[in-house]
Design goal:
By secondary structure, the protein is of the alpha/beta class. Helix content is about 30%, strand content about 15%. It has four helices and twelve strands. The strands form three sheets. The protein has a five-stranded parallel sheet with strand order 2-4-7-10-12. Strands 1-3-6-9 form a four-stranded parallel sheet, with no helix packed on it. α1 runs antiparallel to α3 and α3 runs antiparallel to α4. It is globular and about 40 Å long. The protein starts with a helix and ends with a strand.
Length: about 170
Amino acid sequence: MGIIKNLKEEVRIIKERDPAIHSSMEVLLYPSFKVMLHYRLAHKLYLSGHYFWARYISQRGVRKTGIEIHPGAKIGKCLFIDHGMGIVFGEIIGETTIIGDNVTMYQGVTLGGTGKEHGKRHPTIGNNVMISAGAKVLGSFTIGDNSKIGAGSVVLSEVPPGSTVVGV
């Protein structure tokens, strides 16, 4: 997909999922839009072995948006991060994190490891998943397609497709 087509898709998703956005120009000020621009560039650098520059670009995105995404993470199309300040990514969403297409995440979400795993140590998030405010998804397992994680939930094990998870 070309750069312009990617940008248009990012703008469309933000306008579609956030009723507070009234114009495409407003999207340019949106933290989710800015961080995804940084992530996409950093990820390309990371894949080509330019690890320092990838982290440099990634950290510039963190300072501008408060959202940290490790450049090695694999993120599909149409990730929407609403109210980005307070979402914890970074080493918590490390090289081994995989996020599918059409995922929505709200503030205060953590996608992290438990510190006990080696190799793949972060979660895999399926397609069309919603992760609500303050949810903690910790470990190397999969959140199935079309699932919803409730606000404040702590998820420590596999979630089947089409499930809703609430609580601890």
